[in-house]
Amino acid sequence: MFFNQSISCPEAKSILENGGQLIDVRSPMEHAQFTIPGSKNIPLNDIGSAEAHLDKSKPVVVYCQSGARSGHAQMVLNSMGFADVHNLGSIQSYFNC
Questions:
Q1: Are 60 and 84 a contacting pair, CB within 8 Å?
Q2: Closest CA to 73 of 18, 29, 26, 36
Q3: Are 51 and 58 in contact (CB under 8 A)?
Q4: Average pLDDT, whole number, for the chain?
Q5: Domain containing 53 — which CATH number?
Q6: Are 47 and 77 in contact (CB under 8 A)?
């Protein structure tokens, strides 16, 4: 399966500073253990319900543990009509910025 390329941490932070939405697509348990402050947890299995939780007019940044789930979430969100979706990839990339 092809995953879209991840964006850099500085790019992600810029998007978030300008009103972007930060989504953690890991499980609720993973999210509770360690997360990026201000992120919303919408597990990959529930990403189909994202329209109820997100504003399609604002950019979305997704992340997970390794980048695989967030890459999949990015493709699903794009197919749902979210036009501005970015894959941060691994949660660690944010903290290593």
A1: yes
A2: 26
A3: no
A4: 93
A5: 3.40.250.10
A6: yes
Tell me: pLDDT of 1 over 90: no
Residue 52 Cα to chain centre, angstroms? 16
* Domain count across the chain: 1
Does any domain span residue 59? yes
Residue from 41, 40, 38, 50 nearest 75 by CA: 50
Condensed to tens digits (0 to 9), the pLDDT of residues 52-85 reads 999 999 999 999 999 999 999 999 999 999 999 9
> Whole-prediction pTM value?
0.92
* Residue 57, domain extent: 9-95
Q: How far is CA 57 from the centre of its chain?
A: 15
Q: Please give the helix or strand (H or E) that residue 25 lies within, else none.
A: none
